Amino acid sequence: MEEQSIQMNLCSTKKEKPSSDQLEFGKIFTDHMFIMDYSNEEGWHDARIIPYQPLALDPSAMVFHYGQSVFEGLKAYLTPDGEAQLFRPEKNMQRLNRSNNRLCIPPVDEEFALHAIKQLIALEKDWIPSAEGTSLYIRPFIISTEPYLGVAPSSHYQFIVILSPVGAYYKEGINPVKIAVENQYVRAVLGGTGEAKTGGNYASSLKAQEMVADKGFAQVLWLDGVEKKYIEEVGSMNVFFKINGEVVTPALNGSILEGVTRNSVIQLLKHWNVPVVERRISMEELYQANKAGILEEAFGAGTAAVISPIGQLTWQEEDYIINNGKTGEIARRLYDTLTGIQYGKEKDPFDWIVKVDKVEHLVK
Ligand SMILES: *Cc1c(COP(=O)(O)O)cnc(C)c1O
Fold this sequence. Notes:
It is a single chain. With about 375 residues, the chain is α+β, with helices and mostly antiparallel strands. It has two domains: about 5-165, Aminotransferase class 4, branched-chain amino acid transferase, N-terminal domain (D-amino Acid Aminotransferase, Chain A, domain 1, 2-Layer Sandwich), CATH 3.30.470; about 175-325, Alpha-Beta Barrel (D-amino Acid Aminotransferase, Chain A, domain 2). It contains eight helices and 18 strands. The protein has helices at about 65, 90-100, 110-125, 200-205, 205-215, 260-270, 285-290, 330-340, and strands at about 5-10, 30-40, 45-50, 70, 75-80, 85, 135-145, 155-165, 175-180, 220-225, 230-235, 240-245, 245-250, 275-280, 295-300, 305-315, 320, 355. A hairpin with a 2-residue loop joins strand 12 (about 240-245) and strand 13 (about 245-250). It starts with 6 loop residues before the first strand and ends in a 9-residue tail after the last strand.
């Protein structure tokens, strides 16, 4: 793909920015958004940054009917020096294209997509909140827009990036959650779309989530879609267990989403010489480990919470209290190190950070 330029059409008036201690997740959006179009004839074209606004779509646009869409989620962080930075954004662009491939959506130029995200962040830099633990959430997504009710890949798409200032995930410090192991519904099956970041996976997960939410469970732990024996992941997080000194996480088997946080956790543990393995792990094994007193920690890993300690797992009416319901040592160390790197407070031995400020001057 040849280098495209980004047309700029800026707002004449700016919205009032929220105070950074009252932010929630994903309810407020910045002044501008990035958008580009795709057609079979022209490929990706008309890249532009425009005021944040509703989309005009034909009611027959394919995305409304058959769900051909993908998304990503990453964050921009403000450093103590007031610089904006991203955490491993190239991994998100690679995953976007893997999701695209699964959903029959044409690939984007990863470098150009990242360049566009950086341009948008540079423009909206004042929207990155500065309070502890806050960030600017970045939501790139692609929708199929061809007005056609036939079941086939769309011939037209839009790639859009919106930004949302988000509050600290943990308002009173990192806090263990209760998780219910889901025995009836499944999130994904081998050969399905579990590996892709696509809205349909979430649509099908809502029922199980809704059924446990009023019992005080934060999320459900999904088991494999065939035998409902093997652990897959938690809500929007990958999952880790520390059993007898070794950290275990389910191997990427084709139905698990490959998290950027998951990958970073594994690299950090290896760097620290903490034993870590990716393999299949069953609920039965976890049950036995818990009974033997060697299930030492459990935690989720994902962009939103970074690390989410699991204080209680409930499976078939039985509660397992893990590490006395407290945050474990490994979970704490991972959380502190990852957030330290993300916010530019700790050194970055893996070159994970990508600065935004170095973007060339915006074309007006
Ligand atoms: C996005 C996501 C994750 C976590 O991925 P990160 O890149 O670490 O944010 C895990 N599971 C599912 C289902 C997801 O959608």
